[in-house]
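Run log // design_07
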């Protein structure tokens, strides 16, 4: 093992590792039609499998936070172990005897080990960047976005090949990403390890008014984010079915709509250097809220061009605020509990994403898909209210 000291190079490696490992997140979503056919699942499997990853992630992050794993142990080692076991759980999807229950369990544990990847990557970055953290986390969340969208791209380029290649490739990438980070990135200069479990760390963090308001803003953002991502292919497929004169490739467009958020994350990070994390985050949250509210108008139109412009714009604004809210959380807690605070807030945010995904999964049985996504506006509205109440740092 050798340690790289240059902060810019360290950030590049963290971004690369995050990109490789977070490809596990939507690996099953990228091949959902094939999974449904292969294992004779119901259409509702989309919501169940997506929610199981989120639930596993929440369980993992809460456990990591309670045991202060990232503050007590080397983050790079935690990242490596999590990447390896996450890759193994992802490979389990290939077992021929799988049922919906076994797939849900496998995706749950994939999510569980992702808890040692996404928030841990943010913690490593925070240990290297005391200033300009919003910009640094913007690159990390951009990597998360691309990693999340990657299975759709793999599915598109290997359309004639077996869906199993998507699973093999994402697992291999995760293992590789974990090894690269472990072998090259040591503990950061601003890391202050905790030597014991501190059950009061979260409680004390929430006594900080700025921390609490930033966390609420993040929760509102998360209510919308993963529900939108999970249902992007479904929106496109329904539009194809409704307007039969339209033709396009759903996997390619799904990758583009989700993946474009990586660009907006970087742009938001750069803008935050001039306008502040809070102001940029609030602006992005406002526009994503607007997208939720006007979605029925767009989805009812027989215009592929209008639909795609709208979805690509939504794909940009829905994620742009994420790294900035995370930066605000990290900047307003004690250094020795930073990893625990980030992990806990991330866990609660993902809990809200499960509720919103399952809500849409339930409502789509009773409402036209045109009107479903208005319900996602609730989270951004609460987040905007919270961010207005918070002074910009």
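design_07 sequence
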């Amino acid at each position: 093992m050798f340690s790289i000291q240059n902060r810019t190079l360290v950030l590049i490696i963290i971004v690369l590792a995050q990109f490789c490992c977070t490809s596990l997140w939507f690996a099953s979503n990228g091949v959902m039609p094939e999974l449904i056919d292969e294992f004779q699942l119901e259409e509702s499997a989309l919501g169940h499998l997506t929610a199981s990853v989120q639930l596993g992630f929440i369980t993992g992050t809460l456990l990591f936070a309670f045991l202060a794993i990232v503050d007590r142990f080397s983050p790079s080692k935690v990242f490596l172990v999590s990447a390896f076991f996450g890759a193994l759980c992802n490979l389990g999807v290939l077992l021929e005897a799988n049922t919906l229950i076994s797939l849900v369990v496998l995706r749950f544990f994939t999510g569980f080990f992702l808890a040692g990847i996404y928030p841990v990557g943010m913690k490593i970055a925070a240990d290297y960047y005391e200033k300009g953290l919003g910009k640094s986390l913007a690159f990390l969340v951009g990597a998360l976005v691309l990693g999340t969208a990657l299975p759709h791209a793999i599915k598109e380029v290997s359309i004639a090949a077996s869906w199993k290649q998507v699973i093999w490739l994402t697992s291999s990438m995760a293992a590789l990403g974990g090894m690269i980070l472990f072998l090259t990135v040591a503990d950061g200069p601003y890391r202050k390890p905790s030597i014991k479990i501190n059950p009061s760390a979260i409680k004390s963090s929430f006594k900080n008014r700025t921390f609490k308001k930033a966390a609420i803003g993040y929760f509102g953002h998360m209510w919308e984010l993963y529900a939108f991502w999970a249902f992007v292919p479904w929106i496109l497929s329904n539009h194809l079915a409704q307007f039969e004169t339209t033709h396009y490739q759903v996997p390619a467009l799904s990758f583009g709509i989700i993946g474009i958020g990586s660009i907006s994350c970087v742009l938001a990070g750069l803008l935050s250097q001039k306008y502040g994390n809070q102001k940029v985050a609030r602006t992005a949250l406002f526009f994503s809220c607007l997208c939720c509210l006007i979605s029925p108008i767009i989805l009812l139109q027989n215009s592929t061009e209008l639909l795609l412009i709208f979805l690509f714009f939504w794909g940009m604004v829905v994620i742009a605020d994420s790294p900035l809210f995370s930066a605000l959380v990290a900047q307003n807690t004690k250094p020795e509990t930073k990893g625990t605070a980030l992990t806990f807030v991330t866990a609660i945010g993902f809990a809200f994403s499960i509720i919103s995904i399952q809500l849409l999964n339930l409502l789509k049985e009773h409402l036209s898909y045109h009107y479903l996504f208005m319900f996602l506006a609730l989270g951004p509205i609460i987040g905007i209210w919270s961010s207005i109440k918070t002074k910009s740092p």
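The chain has 20 helices and no strands.
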